[in-house]
Amino acid sequence: MPLSYKLSISQKTELLTDIEAHRRKLLFLCKRGNLESELLLIAFVEALDLQLSPQKNQLFETFLNENDQNLLCWLLKHNPQAPSQTVGIPTEYQALIDEIRLNYLNKPSLVDN
Fold first, then answer.
1. What is the largest CA-CA distance in the chain?
2. How confident is the model over 18-61, as pLDDT tens digits?
3. What is the pTM of this model?
4. Sorting pLDDT into bands at 50, 70 and 90, what band is 106?
5. Does residue 55 contact residue 64 with C-beta atoms inside 8 Å?
6. Which of 92, 101, 112 is nearest to 40 (CA)?
7. pLDDT reading at 3 higher than 70
8. Where are the domains positioned within the chain?
């Protein structure tokens, strides 16, 4: 039987409150020094399921603690200050970055409506 069936109404409410508080924390951490990174990161958090796996959550929080310049280069996959240089993306973040980019690129555009 799934965990949600075993919880009381108050426990479910508390769990949802905790999840919403965590989502708000992630949205706050997505506020960056540049709009490009911020748009990609916020769209990713808004598209997340209610709960991340503990491993993915830890990876995403660690990723958000990186400096703004690294995040911008990794998310855009190039360095705006040196466009001819190849950007080295840490292997531990590669799948996460691909997921963030894919989420943003597949998001419905306001222009399409």
1. 57
2. 778 888 889 999 998 899 999 999 999 988 865 678 898 899 99
3. 0.75
4. confident
5. no
6. 101
7. no
8. 34-108
Residues 41 and 97: their CA atoms lie apart, in Å, by 10
Q: Which two tokens stand for residue 97?
A: 């970055």
Tokens for 86? 């190849």
Instruction: Tell me how far apart the alpha carbons of residues 96 and 99 are, in angstroms, rounded to a whole number.
Output: 5
Task: Show the DSSP H helices in 1-90 as ranges.
Answer: 3-6, 9-29, 35-47, 54-64, 68-76
Pairs from 65-72 (Cβ < 8 Å, separation ≥ 24)? 65/29, 68/32, 68/33, 68/34, 68/37, 71/32, 71/37, 71/41, 72/32, 72/34, 72/36, 72/37
* Euclidean distance between CA atoms 98 and 7, whole angstroms: 35
State the Cα–Cα distance between residues 62 and 55, nearest whole angstrom: 11
Rounded Cα–Cα distance for residues 40 and 105 (Å): 9
Specify the length of the chain in residues: 113
